[in-house]
Amino acid sequence: MARSPLTPTRALRVSLVGAVASALMLSGCAAQGTAAAPAEPGAPAAEPSLEFEGPNGEQPGALGELELTDDELAEVQEGDLTAAFVWHTSGDFVAAVEEGARAEFEELGIEVVASTQANFDAGTQANNVQTVMALDPDIVVAIAVDPTSAAKSFQPILDAGAKLVIMTTPPEGYAAGDEFVSIVTEDLAKAGRANAEILGDALGGEGEVGVLTFNANFWFTNQRDQSFTDWLAYEYPDIEVVEEQGFADETATQAAAAAMIAKNPNLKGIYVSWATAAQGVLAAIRAAGRTDIQVVTNDLDTTVAAAMVTGTNVAGMVGNGSLDIGAGLARAGAYGVLGKDAPELVASDPTKVTKDNLVEGWEADYGVEPPSSVTGG
């Protein structure tokens, strides 16, 4: 009998975006596979695609495709296996993904022996890999800070024969089924559309907006960001993107947003690639004394959520299905140790979260109610 990690007891908790279902974190350069064809001047934008692909052209499937038979489950549970996490950064989203993975690892009888994060620093991540591999884990769940340098720094994982599972971004040159088991992520095209609809609806379908994206060749956020701009142009033709900026460090977003606001006094909205980067944008808006600029971003974050509840500057956030991504990562790790072929790429459905459905959205993504620091309760 087949057994899925996303059974009714851990069902995908999602909401629909428009006619189709509606994440560590990142964006900026040209996207792969999601951009709509540019419209002629004065012509309406072409309808964007809801298709996306992985960094090597992997085609996404649903998380529910990851399943084990009872015999396979028993084999994993009896294997005395261990696992470790090598994250790119910390934050509410990463914590929720790890929580989902830890819960699934526990059900699989796999012990978690280490968890590290690199503050988006490739050198720190390389050192973290060495530290983690000294514990000889059987499974490593990771996301490359810098795909190019990670091709070398992740080599100790391969040399040790550990099974590598990727959340969103693998090292350059690594392929599913060879160097790593599978990529587990969110549906990027749907996430971009969800962001566009949250901001477009908040602005009443018109006004000037700015876009702040991560200035790196990072396939995950590149496609998500491109989907946002494509769907905004298509569904809200009276909204104009007046400025786009890239940022190399999420701590630089306050200065970037401040300059954008000063240059564009009629600005009414700002899209930011992910939530911790959005914190600086909110600080810049407050410093400018603007109560009329709406922000939309990805990931559910306590700071941004609190600002949404108490203020006027956050239109909403897009949740990634974090717990389910974590469960999928753990289950893909089990595929690896069993030598079972896994889908190259699987994706969760994102959730639109606004002030009106904050509690439900938080529970769907993180499995708990938002903390009192968010709700004021």
Question: What labels would you give this structure?
Answer:
signal; 20% strand; 377 residues; disordered N terminus; alpha/beta; carbohydrate binding; Peripla_BP_I; SBP_2_dom; LacI family transcriptional regulator
Number of helices: 13
What percent strand?
A: 15-25%
Low-confidence runs (pLDDT<50, min 5 residues)? 1-42
**Major sheet strand order:** 4-16-10-9-8-6-7
Keywords: Signal
InterPro entries: Peripla_BP_I, SBP_2_dom
Protein name: LacI family transcriptional regulator
Domain Periplasmic binding protein: 84-332
General description of the model:
This protein has 377 residues and is of the alpha/beta class. It folds into two domains: 27-52 and 188-320 and 352-375, Rossmann fold (3-Layer(aba) Sandwich); 61-186 and 322-348, Rossmann fold, CATH 3.40.50. Helix content is 38%, strand content 20%. It is built from 13 helices and 17 strands. It has helices at residues 70-77, 92-108, 122-133, 147-153, 155-159, 188-202, 219-235, 253-263, 275-287, 302-310, 322-338, 358-366, 372-375, and strands spanning 2-3, 16-17, 20-21, 61-62, 68-69, 82-86, 111-116, 139-142, 163-167, 183-186, 207-214, 239-247, 267-272, 294-298, 314-319, 345-348, 351-353. The strands form four sheets. A seven-stranded parallel beta sheet has the order 4-16-10-9-8-6-7, sandwiched between helices. Helix 9 links the parallel strand 13 (267-272) and strand 14 (294-298). Helix 6 (188-202) crosses helix 7 (219-235) and helix 8 packs across helix 9 (275-287). The longest helix is centred in the N-terminal third of the chain and has 17 residues, at 92-108. The radius of gyration is 20 Å and the shape is elongated. Mean pLDDT is 89; it is low at 1-42.
